[in-house]
Amino acid sequence: MSSYERVTAHVDNPEALREEGRRKMDWALQHMPILQSIREDFEAEKPLTGETIGMAMHVEAKTAILVETLALGGAEVAVTGCNPLSTHDDVSVALDAVDNVTSYAVRGVDDEEYYAAIESVIDHEPTITVDDGADMVFRIHQEHPELIDSIVGGAEETTTGVHRLRAMDEDGELNYPMFAVNDTPMKRLFDNVHGTGESALSAIAMTTNLSWAGKTVVVAGYGYCGKGVASKAAGQDANVVVCEVEPRKALEAHMEGYDVLPMAEAAEEGDVFITTTGNKDVITREHFEKMQDGVLLANAGHFDVEINLDDLDDLAVDRYEARDGVEAFEMADGRRLNVLAEGRLVNLAAPVGLGHPVEVMDQSFGIQAVCVREIVENGDEYEAGVHEVPDELDKEVAEIKLAAEGVEYDGLTDEQVEYMSSWQHGT
Amino acid sequence: MSSYERVTAHVDNPEALREEGRRKMDWALQHMPILQSIREDFEAEKPLTGETIGMAMHVEAKTAILVETLALGGAEVAVTGCNPLSTHDDVSVALDAVDNVTSYAVRGVDDEEYYAAIESVIDHEPTITVDDGADMVFRIHQEHPELIDSIVGGAEETTTGVHRLRAMDEDGELNYPMFAVNDTPMKRLFDNVHGTGESALSAIAMTTNLSWAGKTVVVAGYGYCGKGVASKAAGQDANVVVCEVEPRKALEAHMEGYDVLPMAEAAEEGDVFITTTGNKDVITREHFEKMQDGVLLANAGHFDVEINLDDLDDLAVDRYEARDGVEAFEMADGRRLNVLAEGRLVNLAAPVGLGHPVEVMDQSFGIQAVCVREIVENGDEYEAGVHEVPDELDKEVAEIKLAAEGVEYDGLTDEQVEYMSSWQHGT
Amino acid sequence: MSSYERVTAHVDNPEALREEGRRKMDWALQHMPILQSIREDFEAEKPLTGETIGMAMHVEAKTAILVETLALGGAEVAVTGCNPLSTHDDVSVALDAVDNVTSYAVRGVDDEEYYAAIESVIDHEPTITVDDGADMVFRIHQEHPELIDSIVGGAEETTTGVHRLRAMDEDGELNYPMFAVNDTPMKRLFDNVHGTGESALSAIAMTTNLSWAGKTVVVAGYGYCGKGVASKAAGQDANVVVCEVEPRKALEAHMEGYDVLPMAEAAEEGDVFITTTGNKDVITREHFEKMQDGVLLANAGHFDVEINLDDLDDLAVDRYEARDGVEAFEMADGRRLNVLAEGRLVNLAAPVGLGHPVEVMDQSFGIQAVCVREIVENGDEYEAGVHEVPDELDKEVAEIKLAAEGVEYDGLTDEQVEYMSSWQHGT
Amino acid sequence: MSSYERVTAHVDNPEALREEGRRKMDWALQHMPILQSIREDFEAEKPLTGETIGMAMHVEAKTAILVETLALGGAEVAVTGCNPLSTHDDVSVALDAVDNVTSYAVRGVDDEEYYAAIESVIDHEPTITVDDGADMVFRIHQEHPELIDSIVGGAEETTTGVHRLRAMDEDGELNYPMFAVNDTPMKRLFDNVHGTGESALSAIAMTTNLSWAGKTVVVAGYGYCGKGVASKAAGQDANVVVCEVEPRKALEAHMEGYDVLPMAEAAEEGDVFITTTGNKDVITREHFEKMQDGVLLANAGHFDVEINLDDLDDLAVDRYEARDGVEAFEMADGRRLNVLAEGRLVNLAAPVGLGHPVEVMDQSFGIQAVCVREIVENGDEYEAGVHEVPDELDKEVAEIKLAAEGVEYDGLTDEQVEYMSSWQHGT
């Protein structure tokens, strides 16, 4: 059924691309202490020997280090993209040159080619799947159910993918165990607070050449992303206003010294608006009508529905590119409201956007790697369906990172363990 | 069996005491916006009419406002202390003068009198109990099981009390429903992070007349209390070092920019050590041996076992009161290690210690008040045993506080509720 | 003319007092690394041999360490108080027992006794004077001009004293050189930013039992004191509002993320008001009229004129002590405005106030000590009049503190010195 | 002598360029509230009528707004670049199209053309000069002394230019008054603390795709730039280490809670090194030898001499571009030290570098504009030579910015002015 050829068949001058891709991978690896440590162990112990891993993920430098790590662990790995526009061809070629790795990812393919590449991965008859958006696991269930018996398990990276898998699971149609890597405490904390917090702010600064000091920054949503954005913006001397709908989160923000306002009031005061709610219509017509000339509107939440661009377009008498990555909407009264990155995730979609910092993906991919190892070692202990990542694996990755960074910490004595246990569970 | 007389029988010049107690209560009330709001509602609606509430709590100004609030809600309230040394006689007398309140609490009573006072409360035949340490509920189960049938439920304030109740519950010996007020998200966050964080630091500063700027402050434990202490100390320009045993918490502290060290290394660097672990033997002989001359040792955790004073005494060639609330332990080599408040909770036990700030107790007692109302309104829906405070009550208290502080925040539109719901629960 | 006897003649049980005073001094010394280091040098080198030092300062533990340091440096020291109410008799007695020190300071003396004690100090025929408020230097000029010829110089601790000396100087009536210790960069920075910042906040917290988290704190004045108070309050999770009259300072506060408002608007928003301007009538009738019920009013500036208490009294229908150190002014509409420490310096005048932290005074008294040494060594190079503390002495104290704290830092190579010099002064 | 033609003669398709340049200028103007306000006044009052202004500055969007403002004030303006590589041709063409402005700046010209363009500006016979590096004022003195009589004065933007002018002044060879715009408190504070602080960090993050959270960031130098970098890095949850040579600055950093270390020790601990000293050889061979694999080395000081690249090259066995803007130096033991932007100013020289944020230049150019107005109005009151910007002008720009941002602040009453004055100057 599939005859899609590995990436090298699709690109010119693969050797030059390979070198460039390798250089990018080397940079990433240099700053991924967790995967550095895991690959050393994997290389020494080959825990994945005999497994075939089918992957559909964004093929760029950071992910490539995960792919290479799995191959070094003894697995045969076949990989393709999970989005036709996110592949870096140079990295794809460099990956394909790694022993035991075949890459089918090519940038800019059409729908047919995209699925042909997935089919080519499936042709390898994976025993484990690793997804970013659940395309691979979905395709296998739909088109290749005969393979499921030999699949031990898989892992899914994203909220969206986990959402899709849970829906399958609820319908009784997910037929092997999948780890929801997205939901671990480690990932949520570091990815959201630090990753989104930092990268949203630097993407906005670099897209606009504007400063944070003295700006009123309105942060919509005070979940993990919102807390990160608020704290990092305050750390750059911005005056932060928080908008929330949940009273305890609103109170938490208030007790941490932030101004808490409804968006209808914040709209009049803000210089920069950053949405992080995961909901739609967070900023709408009634808010646009009150905003000052020159405000920036950016989304660091999830989809491009948080800022209602239809409302904004309705109000605008003119819209034009004010700067790369910035579209100005001019109101009848002359005010200009500037939307960054079309209201899509600003740290990814802005022209200067690099996505999450390397270290944040190291954390997340470290969990992926130990999950794959867990599937190999104990996969038969997990029933078909979506599984939380076991606490011990999340903790192990924290331990690896601390060791890699040379951070030492205390252990408990037996007496202390007993004391805590007697205390918690009754005498 | 009990013939213990109300507090006025035990004190001289009750009228002068009453005025002084009332002044203290008025100060507290002025800064308890949640209870202010609840008492207005209670006064208007009298939701507790017909109930008798038996309470054993620290009888001081803040608690007194809770007692008064319950009485204003229509209940008859009988109260005594939960610790012979924590009663303020002036407040006890002022409480006793409140309509529908009888107070038996007297400072400095002996064991016999202490229990006689509890018995006197029980003589009122409470339909609801409110405890700080579970003494009341325990006594009723042990000595007055015949009353249990008419008791609708109760609430317990502290970790220790909840621990005791869970043990009873596990043995099948807790015969009416009890709310574990201690464990709500609101209480944990505000009480531990803000309450302990702030009051531990100001108690240390005022006990020692020393400054935080430029000091190396070692915080043992990075739970809610530890986070509060670390953040507030950094906010006073201290250089904070964190000691932890759980790798994810250690990593969290590291990622927030703190130095993370084992105590054996931190011992050499610290100027001030603050324990917040809830465990024992956090600072022991091997650490004392390495500390610098003049260090401060304080506990903001729970019991006085975190700093091992036996080890310290063994090492000391001399010990003397260096200052009110500070005991110096002099080592053979001349170094002086200064223990604050005998290693007991420094924000309570230091001579200047005032316990938690008024606003923190307002939060906690606000939850108590709505729990009591819940018991009256829906008590029959709860089985005997320990219950978490329902999320909705915790949330209601947050709403009351935001309203009282004049903080407005957003609501969700129907479309937004639907969007989130479709997203979270599958399409 | 003077026959005032040393302190021991005025107190009961001097030996018990001496022990108590010594204990206080030992605590201070333990936390004064700068004076520890200077006294070691002074003891070894006796640079003050042959001098007689006459001092009028607050006789409490921290100052006592300075007095003792000067005596250890070889000087004969005679000391008395600079305010009849600030003397600690126990410290005064302990000081008097130090070799080469005579103390005349007694708490609670009347005017006549106060000046008699100063005269007794002058009877020692000082060759150097050290003042806190210029009483000693003023008395000598007025009553004992014959002594001036043998006086090499002096040092003055406070703003007020320096102000008085400059007035004398301008009138050509200051007849020996005086160092204005108050004005050094080191003193201003550490004393004002850290000392006032920290101690004002902890004094307010401990006087009121209230919390900072989530409070709106209005800081009037954004000089060094105001910056310290603002930064430390924000560090305790308060929401800080700054009021200023100088546009560049107002802009500085704005650019650092604070809300900047005129007092007329801040009055409506604040929960706590802290004045640090050094000016009068910063908070007046028009502001009191707008404030919320329960606000706190405190002064961390200089005199008790920043908050206009006459205006407040005019508006009040009742005033009463709401708590030790807190006077409530009740308005006709029931609002209560709470003034701390009678509007005097809250970190000193509040009942719990301990003044500046020990380390801050160590810095300040370290400069005093090297100034006295400078007078001995190079006094003849200074003309009569007020002198800034030479930059090198200020720097020396910084070096001593860094060495005492074990903080190492870099030096410049010869090439670097040359590079900077060529750059700054032209090629 | 000069026959260099205005910019349009040198570029293709000037109309398309003009539109693009105008778009860039509009973006800048939208975020320059100070110049917005000044140009309104200038347009209304035409204070510069009759003057001819000769300028040599970086011709990019932000500067262009200053040029346009001066033209709107009634002056005829001739402008060229101050560096052949910093001109944006689109902006130059857009400027040239502004009424009363002639632009000669073209990117990438050779030396001869560069000076011919300056000559063309001089051909306009300026009565006022505005420089960035003093090229214009220097050329006039050297080649066209006959023009000096009709020149009223000038302004210089940079440290380097002021340095050059002071050297001329000391030699008695600066023959008209020049304002040293670089040195005002406003510029130093906002430009260095906020401008350099923010832009250095975001340039580093965007060049490397790395994160700040949990990183050890070594800041060399604790002047205004160093303070800005340290504070903003801590605000992104980095662990900051400060290196200093001046003991009082070292102590200031220590008292603010930073680790202070000599570079020889910091070298072992740092993940990122940022130099801000203005000196040379801040990081040298002995430091490189101790650094960890993967460290980042960046300069936010002045020249590219702070990090000794010769030493680094000597030690390296290989050097290669690891990433755009990052050169890796590989040591014999395999460690890779990554130098950003060739050790030149990272916020300018990195490929993603945008220089200072718009608002920072608004501040600086606002001072330029009021200085030019001052020259016109009161130029004859200034003698030939370098002049500090009068305090009142610096203050005026702060007032304009506060008004533009809608920030209100207090004024002093007459009584307050009198009180302060009596206090400061003696009664």
UniProtKB/TrEMBL annotation, chains A, B, C, D:
One of its GO terms (cellular component) is cytoplasm. Signal peptide: none annotated. It catalyses: S-adenosyl-L-homocysteine + H2O = L-homocysteine + adenosine. It is found in: Cytoplasm. Its cofactor is NAD(+). Binds 1 NAD(+) per subunit. One of its GO terms (biological process) is L-homocysteine biosynthetic process. GO terms for molecular function: adenosylhomocysteinase activity. Residues 192-353 form the S-adenosyl-L-homocysteine hydrolase NAD binding domain. InterPro entries: Adenosylhomocyst_ase-like_sf, Adenosylhomocysteinase-like, Ado_hCys_hydrolase_NAD-bd, NAD(P)-bd_dom_sf, S-Ado-L-homoCys_hydrolase_CS. The keyword Hydrolase applies. Gene3D superfamilies: Adenosylhomocysteinase-like, NAD(P)-binding Rossmann-like Domain. Pfam families: AdoHcyase (PF05221), AdoHcyase_NAD (PF00670). Keywords: Cytoplasm, Hydrolase, NAD, One-carbon metabolism. NAD(+) binds at residues 158-160, 192, 221-228, 244, 279, 300-302, 347, 356. Substrate binds at residues 132, 157, 187, 191. Its EC number is 3.13.2.1. Pathway: Amino-acid biosynthesis; L-homocysteine biosynthesis; L-homocysteine from S-adenosyl-L-homocysteine: step 1/1. It is an enzyme of class 3 (hydrolase). Belongs to the adenosylhomocysteinase family. HAMAP family: AdoHcyase. May play a key role in the regulation of the intracellular concentration of adenosylhomocysteine. NCBIfam families: ahcY (TIGR00936), PRK05476.2-3 (NF004005). This is Adenosylhomocysteinase. It comes from Halolamina salina. The gene is ahcY.
